[in-house]
Design brief:
Helix content: 40-55%
Number of domains: 1
Distance between the termini: 31 Å
Order of helices and strands: EHEHHHEHEHHHH
CATH superfamily: Response regulator
Largest sheet: 4 strands, parallel
Mean pLDDT: 87
Structural class: alpha/beta
Length: 205
């Protein structure tokens, strides 16, 4: 298997994206050739990971990786070197598209990838690239004819109309009452993506 790269991006790179990063790493295992990293569109270089994320598991591997995490801003180079880019929300994906439009075809929100990846299977050496192609085809099939409300129509067709809430996004509730709900959404999407890519979710406390 070739050295494929997954990049997870949120706003500050202290909560949603590092949680997905650590979860994916944990599922793929230390010997995997798939590397996973994260960044933020408004990250302050060097900020520590969210304490709640750090405390989610007690095993030494999780603790070490959480404590060694330092936030970093996303760059065009990070985007263009990645095989797959997963974002916490649709607005963040939009920012990345504007920053690096040539890479838009391999950008998906976490929830979008988890939904579109249903049924994916690959035993080839480039399973992340195969996964991206699968997601892109699924997204293309779900996209209606272009119109004035193309983006909104696509979202409703994929996930149903749920009012003002964007069902493809995981809200940034860091430090608020909904913080644990945000982390649960990240973990759920990450577990689904791992299963689709042949990884394994660990249940250590």
């Amino acid at each position: 298997m070739t050295g494929e790269k997954i990049l997870v991006v949120c706003a500050a790179n202290v909560c949603r994206s590092p949680l997905a990063e650590l979860g994916l790493r944990r599922g793929f295992g230390a010997d995997s050739s798939i590397s996973v990293s994260s960044a933020g569109v408004r990250a302050t270089e060097g900020d520590a990971i969210c304490e709640l994320v750090s405390s989610l598991h007690d095993d030494e591997g999780w603790r070490e990786q959480a404590q060694s995490h330092h936030a970093r801003p996303v760059t065009i180079e990070l985007i263009e070197q990645s095989t797959l880019i997963l974002t916490a929300s649709r607005d963040i994906r939009g920012e990345l598209v504007r920053l690096a439009p040539r890479s838009r075809d391999w950008m998906f929100t976490l929830k979008e990838a988890a939904h579109l990846g249903a049924g994916f299977s690959s035993t080839g050496p480039d399973r992340v690239a195969d996964y991206v192609a699968y997601l892109d085809r699924a997204r293309s099939r779900a996209t209606p004819l272009a119109g004035s409300d193309g983006a909104g129509s696509r979202i409703r067709r994929l996930f149903g109309n749920r009012g003002a809430v964007d069902p493809t996004s995981i809200a940034d509730r860091h430090g608020s009452r909904g913080h644990r709900e945000t982390l649960a959404e990240v973990q759920s999407s990450t577990a689904t993506i791992l299963a689709q890519l042949g990884g394994h979710r660990r249940h250590a406390s």
